[in-house]
Input
Amino acid sequence: MDRSFLAGQLLISMPGISDPRFERTVILICAHDDSHAMGLALNRPVEGLNVPDLLTRLNIKSEIKAAADLVLLGGPVERERGFVLHTDDYHGEHSIDVGGGMALTATRDVLEALAEAGGRPRRALLALGYAGWGAGQLENEIRENVWLICEPDENLVFDQDHRSKWSRALAKLGIDPERLSFAAGRA
Output
């Protein structure tokens, strides 16, 4: 398996995943190499926290009267750390390319850009924490049928319909979630 091929791909959790934190979860892999993998869950909103409120808490004045996009729980690791996944039309000094026209930035400059009328990314989401795997761990989980892999699309990644993202991601693969088995097997 090419260990870099997962960057920019979606992981879709299989039914019966042993870790309830990832049940019915869709994760965008942002980085993947021989030593680790890192991704953000795309469908786990943090109850009661939206982007405008978070910007206010961080003393960032917003020029935008935008919709109250929800802040997501990106994963169980470093939940106090924020990440902005965004379209690559914005690229700060510390942004990293994820692939598929997306980039990831974890510095205050992207938050300030989100609050400005000009210079902001076309689409973005803010997540607290991330999902992380050590060397070979993600590859083993894929071999054990814990995750399915598919190409992302911008609407699935950035829209606010978090309840249906898992089933819509499965549908991209032609899979009806009602027909999935909770038991994994090998042919």
